[in-house]
Amino acid sequence: MNKNRLEAFSDGVLAIIITIMVLEFKLPDGANSDALKPLLPKFLSYILSFIYIGIYWNNHHHMMHTVNQVNGKILWANLHLLFWLSLIPFATAWNGENHFAPFPMMLYGIILLMNGVAYYILQQLILKHHGKDSLLSKALGKDYKGKSSPLFYLIAVLFANYYPIVSGSIYIFVALMWLVPDKRIERIFNRE
Predict the structure, then answer these.
(1) Taking a C-beta distance cutoff of 8 angstroms, is the pair 167, 99 a contact?
(2) Domain extents for the chain?
(3) What is the structure's pLDDT at 172?
(4) What is the catalytic activity of this protein (predicted)?
(5) pLDDT in the model for residue 136
(6) Residue 185: is its pLDDT beyond 80?
(7) Which 8-state DSSP code applies to residue 190?
(8) DSSP labels for 124-177?
(9) pLDDT tens-digit profile of 40-74?
């Protein structure tokens, strides 16, 4: 099967996810800068989640450039990833509304963890479908970032009930780790 519909559908879902997140913002009560202060936790939560959605969109886009064809398993794995990504607006709103309270921070981490697991499953099915000599296989190499991210999320989830600030710092750290552009796939395309 051609991959174009998978890419178009994924792009559309990610655009809707970002739209849902921004629609959570309500107009401030008042017309001065003090009226914006109560929105700060929501805005900070939105920024982090927007960055995460952007990271997933960017990496998904790059990964799909290595794919020639998809099968049913890849389509379902992609839907699995989109499911977990679609929960980010809920966790984002809940975190912002409750000023990063322990349980919302834990749930946010669980959702990030499941996004990482879902992405890994999709990646593995693509590797299986295209073989060990595929462009994606060559580009990933040892994939330290991909393997360490779920571990960081798990640590953050465990800290959330006691030290939500530590959890938040870990979520930011992982986002920054992925925000640094990953040139592995681009390098492989330039070599091929």
Answers:
(1) no
(2) 4-191
(3) 97
(4) K(+)(in) = K(+)(out)
(5) 84
(6) no
(7) H
(8) HHHHHHH-TTSHHHHHHTT-HHHHHHHHHHHHHHHHHTT-HHHHHHHHHHHHHH
(9) 999 999 999 999 999 999 999 989 988 989 999 99
Pair of tokens at residue 178: 């992925």
Distance CA 56, CA 61 (A): 8
Do 30 and 153 form a contact (C-beta atoms < 8 A)?
no
3-state class (DSSP) for residue 12: helix
Write the pLDDT tens digit of every residue in 133-176: 888 887 887 888 888 999 999 999 999 999 999 999 999 999 99
User: Looking at this protein, which amino acid is placed at residue 56?
Assistant: Y
Average pLDDT (17-29) is 90
CA–CA gap between residue 2 and residue 17 (Å, rounded): 24
Q: What is the pTM of this model?
A: 0.91
Return d(Cα 164, Cα 159) in angstroms, integer: 6
Length of the chain measured in residues: 192
3-state secondary structure the chain: CCCHHHHHHHHHHHHHHHHHHHHCCCCCCCCCHHHHHHHHHHHHHHHHHHHHHHHHHHHHHHHHHCCCCCCHHHHHHHHHHHHHHHCHHHHHHHHHHCCCCHHHHHHHHHHHHHHHHHHHHHHHHHHHHHCCCCHHHHHHCCCHHHHHHHHHHHHHHHHHCCCHHHHHHHHHHHHHHHHCCCCHHHHHHHHC
Is pLDDT of 181 > 70?
A: no
